[in-house]
């Protein structure tokens, strides 16, 4: 350990002239068979020599109930701490238990072998895990990538192939003409509108003209408010049965939505694919789906052309990059879901910064944040030391996420700010006519 710290001190004090001798800031690493290979390397910011030994010592799990999520600190014997995030909203304690199970495998391992550890954690289980396991893997995967970037002194996007753009486009969220005006006032050039209910109630299996007309009137008013140059996605959220969803899809076509999100629940991808053929508006889905294998099925069926994996659910940076590459082969765009924590959102932006088929990015909201004395923001205030800065609806990469690893540090008061905040639960949804259970 002392040797590691000495080597890091040497790296930090290396002169600018010596650092300039490194060709394109490339350092030598070692493959498993001992062969030299090139790695992105910035000697002036690196926290370790590529040949240093680094081992995971413990995982520190931080529930962040005001964001419906879990932050993770991965500690190492080299003093480098990786930050991660993984969650299943409303099931925080379940995911925390899953992370603790992964800790048994990770202790003593080199966190820089990210892909190897992902494969071991996922494939060594006889029963393939779904969203709880992949959310736990997401947290540790993101943290390992953060350590790797910090050790080499480069942003994660450099380790994923480098930049394909200089900014990340964001979209806002609204539900009425007034909230749409507020979104535009913040600088957004695109937004998403929820149509879960109409006339003060949720939808039934097959709806009447009054319910449909209520949705149409609201969307018409919003389109007239924002004009024809603003992209406007429609969030169906899987709340409608296929019959009602298809009626709404056809009724809203005249307003040329940007996309229809979650037109039905993702368990019936063949039916979603049939519905997609009946409209010229793209379908977007994927926030509840995990791993490249589930997205492969979606793409091969043609159920959606805009994919919405959430990096805190789907398996982390490793899996998000694989899903994006798979989507590119099908000429599908990436529209990542990121409604929970700022750590996951920034990790997702690193992947999208290196992805050619990126469309736009969601940003966390504060749906679960209590109305207390803590000043929080969806761009990271009270969660990270340096909140993101939005410029005309974009996150400019330079100055926001261009530091080593994720390029962020957790707020010093995070744990104190979360003290006493209760875990959030999804609201129950019941049919107003007979009290039966409805989809969410």
Determine the CATH topology of the domain at 167-418.
Answer: TIM Barrel
First-residue to last-residue Cα separation: 50 Å
- Using the 3D structure, state the CATH architecture of the domain at 167-418: Alpha-Beta Barrel
Helical/strand content category: alpha/beta
Uncertain residue segments: 10-36
Oligomeric state of the chains present here: single chain
Number of strand segments: 17
What's the short version?
The chain has helices at residues 2-12, 16-20, 92-106, 114-123, 131-152, 156-159, 177-185, 209-226, 242-252, 269-276, 291-301, 316-329, 342-353, 414-418; strands at 26-30, 36-40, 56-64, 69-76, 82-85, 167-169, 172-174, 190-194, 197-198, 201-202, 231-235, 260-261, 283-285, 306-307, 333-334, 390-391, 394-396. It has 440 residues and is of the alpha/beta class.
């Amino acid at each position: 350990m002392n040797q590691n710290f000495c080597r890091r001190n040497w790296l930090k004090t290396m002169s600018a002239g010596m650092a300039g001798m490194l060709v394109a800031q490339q350092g030598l690493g070692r493959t498993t068979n001992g062969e030299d290979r090139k790695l992105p390397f910035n000697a002036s910011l690196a926290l370790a020599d590529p040949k240093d030994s680094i081992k995971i010592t413990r995982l520190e799990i931080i529930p962040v109930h005001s964001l419906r999520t879990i932050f993770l600190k991965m500690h190492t014997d080299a003093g480098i701490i990786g930050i991660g995030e993984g969650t299943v909203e409303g099931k925080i304690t379940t995911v925390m238990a899953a992370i603790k199970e992964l800790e048994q495998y990770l202790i003593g391992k080199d966190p820089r072998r990210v892909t190897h550890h992902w494969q071991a954690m996922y494939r060594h289980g006889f029963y393939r895990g779904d969203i709880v396991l992949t959310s736990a893997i997401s947290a540790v995967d993101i943290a390992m990538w953060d350590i790797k970037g910090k050790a080499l002194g480069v942003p994660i996007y450099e380790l994923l192939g480098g930049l394909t753009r200089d900014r990340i486009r964001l979209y806002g969220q609204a539900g009425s003409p007034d909230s749409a005006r507020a979104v535009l006032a913040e600088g957004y050039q695109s937004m998403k509108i929820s149509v879960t209910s109409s006339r003060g109630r949720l939808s039934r299996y097959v709806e009447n003209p009054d319910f449909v007309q209520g949705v149409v009137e609201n969307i018409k008013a919003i389109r007239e408010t924002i004009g024809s140059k603003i992209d406007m996605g429609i969030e169906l959220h899987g709340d409608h049965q296929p019959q009602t969803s298809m009626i709404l899809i056809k009724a809203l076509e005249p307003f040329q939505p940007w996309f229809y999100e979650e037109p039905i629940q993702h368990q019936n991808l063949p039916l979603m694919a049939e519905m997609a053929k009946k409209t010229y508006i793209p379908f977007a889905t994927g926030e509840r789906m995990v791993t490249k294998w589930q997205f492969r099925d979606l793409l091969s069926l043609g159920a959606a052309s805009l994919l919405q994996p959430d990096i805190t659910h789907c398996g982390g940076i490793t899996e998000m990059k694989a899903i994006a590459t798979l989507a590119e082969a099908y000429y599908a765009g990436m529209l990542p879901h990121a409604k929970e924590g700022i750590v996951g959102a920034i990790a997702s932006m690193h992947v999208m910064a290196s992805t050619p088929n990126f469309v736009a990015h969601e940003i966390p909201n504060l749906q679960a944040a209590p109305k207390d004395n803590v000043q929080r923001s969806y761009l990271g205030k009270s969660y990270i030391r340096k909140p993101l800065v939005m410029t005309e609806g974009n996150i400019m990469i330079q100055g926001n996420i261009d530091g080593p690893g994720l390029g962020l540090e957790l707020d010093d008061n995070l744990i104190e700010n979360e003290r006493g905040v209760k875990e959030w639960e999804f609201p129950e949804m019941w049919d107003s006519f007979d009290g039966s259970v409805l989809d969410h």
